[in-house]
Model the fold of this input.
Amino acid sequence: MTKNAEAIAGEALLASPASFDLDAAAQLGAKADGIELAMLVNGAKVPGLPESIPVALRRGNNPSVESVAPLFEAYRQHPARKTGQAVAQTFESFCALTVRHKTEHSAIFANMDWRKPSLTSVIDYHQLADGNPDFGKHRIHYAFPLSEEWQKWIASDGEKMDQGAFAWFLEDRIAELVAPTDTEKLNYERDFATTIATPAQLIELSRGLQVNVESKVKASTTLQSGEGQIAWEETHTDGSGKPLKVPGIFMLNIAPFFMGDKVRIPVRLRYRPAGGKVIWFYQIYRPDQFITQHVRDTLAEARDNTGLPTFEGTPEMQA
Done:
């Protein structure tokens, strides 16, 4: 069966979309009116685009090629792709959601900032096999929930307090203190060249500070043991008539993350005489080490639970 001229011209038009000829379309339009559904071929092989797309050929005096996508969108039954970020409130939920949606290209990233660590699964991450980029817009996020106790210690870390405020601070947080082990006592007293306090000694210190809260400092010395010794002009006793000794370090036993395991962290105790008063502050020793190690351990657990590759860092910004 021989094709007519109109059919041959139409096939030539669709086969060479890069050289679309409006004059040829006008000739077709002179012979017929109406709209015809056809496939526009990606002849230039533009990366990231399909091999062909449906278009509407409008015939007539003003021929044109129009997208039919808006016509279909009105009847869409589900989105073209998954997007958005789910927020998991527990590590178990993070892993379960990741496994539910993961593909062979998905990946997990860990933000190692010890003040606000987090895990993020990028479900539609860049493809591994052929190297094609992906949208990276479907994500699952888990922010490690810091415990209230840890947040309070971090918030006041390095903050200068007067004698009364510091005494009450120690009283309120005494449940989070712990006596050093023999090994900790040996190592920390050697490394910091000072004495390490038990919770009982810190209670004694806080109460001694409360007794002398209105008194002026008479003398402040550092003993051979590394302890500080403070005497006051008016009332300068710790309850037994002796000057008050100040240890240089104490131990925290605290869970940095909500419902998490407790860790033992050394804290340096500091004070400065100023204008007859004493200014107090403390410094948590390398809190980043303890938090970072916990995040790394959890990241390894996420890799085992999901079977996905893991990276320390943050994924690319979403476009």
Remarks:
- Residues 5-10, 12-19, 218-241 have pLDDT under 50 and may be disordered.
- The chain has three domains: 5-73, 84-144, 148-286.
- Residues 84-144 form one domain.
- The chain is about 30% helix and 25% strand.
